[in-house]
Specification:
Radius of gyration: 31 Å
Order of helices and strands: HHHHHHHEEHHH
Oligomer: single chain
CATH architecture of the largest domain: Orthogonal Bundle
Strand content: under 5%
Number of strands: 2
C-alpha cells in the first residue's frame, strides 16, 4: 500500500492513469460507433421499403382496399392480414385483381419480387399478422412424407383432392391445383387462409406438420407415372372410366368397319 501511495504522488503516475482512461473511453466509443451505423442503416432500409410499399399500395391497391387499407365494398380490410397474405396473393398473380369475380385467379405476378416485398412490408407495418415464413420454416428435407400424406388427406383432400389436383366448391368457387405451388406459398396459404380455405395456425397444425404436408405435396409434384398417362391421378374410378371408354370406342369402331366391309 505504501508503494502505491508513493507512486500516486508522482506526476508521471497521474499522466499514465489519464492516458489509460482516454484509451479505454476511445476504444469503447469506437466499438459502439461501429454497431450503431449498421443498426441505423437497417432501420433506414426498412423505413424506405415501407414507404416504397405505401406508394405502390396507393397506386395499385387503394381503389379496392381504401386509402387506409380498412377495406371497402370492393375489397376486404388488410389490417392484420400480415406480410404472408400479401406475399401469397401478389406472388401468385391473384392480386391486383384484374376484374371482379367469384374468385381471384392465379397467373403471372404483376409485381417484381422487390415490389412484392415492399407491399408486404407496408401492410405488415399497419398491424401484427402472419409473417413471410423463413427458409427454416419451409425446409421439409427431414419431414415424414408418409405422415404428410395422412395429414393432407385429413385436412386438405376434401377440397384439393387426394393428389392435390384441386376441385370444385360451391357457388362457382374452386380449390386450385397445388402442382405449381412453392413451399413458401403453401405455408403462407396455411397460415392465412386465402379465399375459402380455413386458417391452420400453429395451434391447429404445428410447424412440423406443415412441413410434412409440404413434403407430401412436393412428392406429388415430382412423382413419376411409370404406367403412362396420369389421368389427373384421380383414382380407379377415372382410370376405369377411361378404359371402358377406350374399349367401347374400339369395339364400336371395329363393328362399323365390319359393317362397311360386309356391304
Amino acid at each position: 500500500m505504501k508503494f502505491l501511495t508513493a507512486r500516486r504522488r508522482r506526476p508521471v503516475f497521474g499522466f499514465a492513469m489519464l492516458l489509460f482512461a482516454l484509451v479505454a473511453v476511445g476504444g469503447l466509443y469506437a466499438a459502439v460507433a461501429t454497431v450503431r451505423p449498421a443498426e441505423a442503416a437497417g432501420a433506414a432500409s426498412s423505413e424506405t421499403q415501407v414507404e416504397m410499399g405505401k406508394q405502390l399500395y396507393l397506386e395499385g391497391c387503394s381503389s379496392c382496399h381504401s386509402l387506409q387499407a380498412q377495406g371497402s365494398t370492393n375489397g376486404p380490410t388488410l389490417i392484420g392480414v400480415g406480410a404472408a397474405a400479401v406475399d401469397f396473393q401478389v406472388s401468385t398473380g391473384r392480386m391486383p385483381l384484374a376484374a371482379p369475380g367469384v374468385q381471384s385467379i392465379a397467373g403471372p405476378p404483376k409485381y417484381s419480387k422487390e415490389d412484392t416485398a415492399a407491399l408486404a412490408a407496408y401492410v405488415a407495418s399497419l398491424a401484427p399478422g402472419p409473417a413471410i415464413p423463413s427458409a427454416e420454416q419451409v425446409d421439409f428435407a427431414s419431414a415424414d412424407v408418409a405422415e404428410g400424406g395422412v395429414l393432407f388427406r385429413v385436412n386438405c383432400q376434401q377440397c384439393h383432392q387426394a393428389a392435390g389436383q384441386g376441385g370444385a366448391l360451391t357457388q362457382g368457387k374452386y380449390a386450385p391445383s397445388l402442382m405449381g405451388s412453392t413451399p413458401t406459398q403453401m405455408y403462407e396459404a396455411m397460415v392465412t387462409g386465402p379465399e375459402s380455405m380455413p386458417v391452420f395456425s400453429n395451434a391447429t397444425l404445428p410447424e412440423e406438420d406443415k412441413k410434412a404436408i409440404i413434403a407430401y405435396v412436393d412428392n406429388l409434384q415430382n412423382a413419376a407415372d411409370p404406367g403412362g398417362l396420369s389421368l389427373g391421378r384421380l383414382g380407379p374410378v377415372t382410370e376405369g372410366l377411361f378404359l371402358w371408354t377406350a374399349v367401347f370406342g374400339a369395339l364400336i369402331a371395329v363393328a362399323v368397319w365390319i359393317g362397311i366391309k360386309a356391304r
